[in-house]
Amino acid sequence: MNISKLFKYAIIIIATVILITFILPYNPEEIYNNQTVVQTEQSSQLDSQERNDIHSESHSDRETHHEAHGDPRSSKKMYVILVTGFRTGSTFLGELFNQNADVLYLFEPFHQNHIKALVRDDAIHGATEENTLLEQRTAYLDQMINKCQVEWPMFGGMSLGMKCGSAEENLKRYGTPECDKADKRWDRQCTRRDIVALKLIRLQRIQHLELVPGIKDANVYVIHLIRDPRGTMNSRLGFGTFYLDDIENLKVKPLTPEKMGIAAANLCDREWDNIQYTEKLPDWLQGRFLRVTHDEMSLEPIEIAERVYEFLGKKIPDDMSEFLISHTTVKEKGVLNTSRNSTEVLEKWKNNLKPDIVKAIEDKCKNVMDFMGYTPHQP
Predict the structure, then answer these.
(1) Of 111, 138, 136, which Cα lies nearest the Cα of 128?
(2) Is the pTM of this model over 0.70?
(3) pLDDT at 3 over 80
(4) Half-sphere exposure in the Cβ direction for 10 (13 Å, CA)
């Protein structure tokens, strides 16, 4: 073989290597697709940012911010915590959720007798009889919010959405015509429902919620209901015996201004702490806190219901208006009855409380009354 042929073979081999290495892998369609993916991702990121900006702008124009766009908490189950005191209209506020089949409503799960029974049965993870009542309640709230583990409530019968009804009612409540009666049904319905609402009149201070592990990452909304302390104390007088510490002071007969002053201070010190805490909301409660008053609920029940649901970013049930009208214009007796003539209730304390008792309340609750715009009574 001469040199010229060897040279030709070498040229052919080198050309083949170049062809295999550089030319054959070249795929215009693949490169186009890769470019398209990059452009699509960039466009998607831009569109997402534009949507964020638009959403933020629309939220800034709203009176109440119920959630920030892109907040990872909003994809989780919603927990609505109703914080208030005893005899402030909390039962009526709770009915805004109890009447909604999409909501699991828990009526006073913090009742101390209930909590103690759960601790004895080892039903609250990590809680023992050595813990304080606050620690036990905090552990139970952690269990409900982070694990959806709900023990049979002491007042389970007050939860309309857990009652058995017609096939149509059961379908709304349980997703099946059959009533759910099996074990762990509260857990199941907690998992199934979009919203869990808890009425916690025994949560002394809103700040105590921060003791619950992970609560700042949970989809939690807080509604604080507050009432004119004179109306609250008058209502407590009519309740009879009860175990809350300030009630003991109301059992003294004849009731003295000194005793009423102690009870009123017990109420208003808690309320003032809650007011101060929520006036400078921590980051985790920004856009997730709403305060309503007993007066507003009494005089404008439909408007308040709409405000509450708007705050949560939810649609108010169609039949809610009918319920509200029927339960705020009738006149029925009963300390746990939600059907009242609400306008009458607002003024009732003026006729029932003696001037010196009224003054004792006003003296101990001046900061709360000033903040809420309640003026001293002039008989």
Answers:
(1) 136
(2) yes
(3) no
(4) 7
